[in-house]
Design a protein that fits this description.
- The protein is an alpha/beta fold.
- It has 3 domains: 120 residues, 3-Layer(aba) Sandwich (Rossmann fold); 117 residues, Four Helix Bundle (Hemerythrin (Met), subunit A) (Up-down Bundle), CATH 1.20.120; 63 residues, no CATH class.
- 54% of the residues lie in helices and 7% in strands.
- The chain has 16 helices and 5 strands.
- Helix 4 links the parallel strand 4 and strand 5.
- The longest helix is centred in the middle third of the chain and has 27 residues.
- This is Response regulator.
Amino acid sequence: AVGQPTAGGARVRHLAGLCLLVVEDNALNRQVASELLMGEGAEVILAEGGLEGVQTVLAEPERFDAVLMDIQMPDIDGLEASRRIRLDERCRTLPIIAMTANASEQDRRTCLEAGMNDHVGKPVDIQQLTRVLLFWTGGATPAPSEPPPPRPGSGAQVLLEPPASILSRFADNLPLLQTVLVSFREETERQLEQLQQARDDGDLRGVLAALHGIKGSTGTMGARALSHLAMELENRGRGLTPDTAAPFLEDPSWLLQMRALLVESNQQLLEQFQVDASTGLGQEPLPALDEDAWREALQQTLELLASGSIQVLDRARELKGRAPDSLREAAAAFAARVERLDFQGAQALARDLLPSDAASSPD
């Protein structure tokens, strides 16, 4: 099976040697997908939207072995991004795999018609995704295209998936799951704020986009009831038009219900996986650096940010833990942006913290 150890005990890294572009606007989904793929040995480059994904591919098409493409994104969707990529002669055979919570046969056909090669559902199953990637990059035979078996106790009344099911989605990597859980509530609250703003503005399209993102990211974390509610609300909203949406948008009850489910789900997840949200994973703290040494370390981290390296996650956590008292608040803000994979925001903040001559050097 994918990801299992060999007879000698060494874990097989099935995607070693592959360079993959992940195009995904949801920060939590980017983090989970990138770290799982890196765990299988792949080099991972991230793009935060459809336009950035197209630009990244066309700048260096020979660099990538495959593209993993979200469908619903705020600038251009994954279908349009794939069409634009296919217009370039150099990209006619580049594998493009759709990743979407919409997993019907009609959705699959729509993806294929847009020039994509295949379609995998969300939440991402790393074993299935690995098999699909190996097939399209010439490394394995295709896996049977069968829907996953129903999980026991499925239904909106069940708050969370079973812990073993959640952990398996993270390739049984408990430290990775714990790391993501530290920022899960903050990231989902940010999405709920976007949802409330769209609702207050009477923006039905914005509400549907926010609900779709919440459905995917909470499903990844195993918050079944919250993900199910987001799906039901999204389906309800898709049957409306701007002229008929007012009663739905003006109803305060469903947003309150989502917030309550988030608090309860987050608390149970933290307890089940033994995470202290205030301290992260509880590692022994390293000694604080002085201001000059800390800024030198930040400069090195800025260079990682400019290259798009996912290794910046570990460096940002270290900077947060080793910040002198005078820079502790800024270090926490920087680490929070990196953990959300908001690399552009993190770069801007880092430049504000560095001398002007040092901050300009990575560009």
